[in-house]
Amino acid sequence: MSKEKKYNTKYSPEFKLSVIIDMLDNELGYEETARKYCITGHHTIKDWEHIYLTEGAEGLMAERRRSKSKRRP
């Protein structure tokens, strides 16, 4: 993968699940996993893990992005 930083990247649910399963199976830390998969910010993986542990794999399938705020007229 490229070393470029990626911002506002949309990851597929399958990718998220594979990252979390790899992290848990291999007992990797957040930062180590982020480096391995070239994900900007280990907080992203921490969020995915929390969703996976509380809601299961189905929780990673849901779209959780916030809509853009509406500008005031």
How is this structure best described in words?
This protein has 73 residues and is mainly alpha-helical. It is globular. The longest helix is centred in the middle third of the chain and has 14 residues, at 42-55. It is built from four helices and no strands. Helix 1 (13-25) crosses helix 3 and helix 2 (30-37) crosses helix 3.
Question: TL;DR?
Answer:
By secondary structure, the protein is an all-alpha fold. The protein contains four helices and no strands.
**Overall spatial form:** globular
Number of helices: 4
Mean pLDDT: 84
Give the N-to-C terminal Cα separation.
43 Å
Low-confidence stretches are none
Task: Give the tags.
73 residues, mainly alpha, 4 helices
Topology record:
Blueprint: H1 13-25, H2 30-37, H3 42-55, H4 57-61
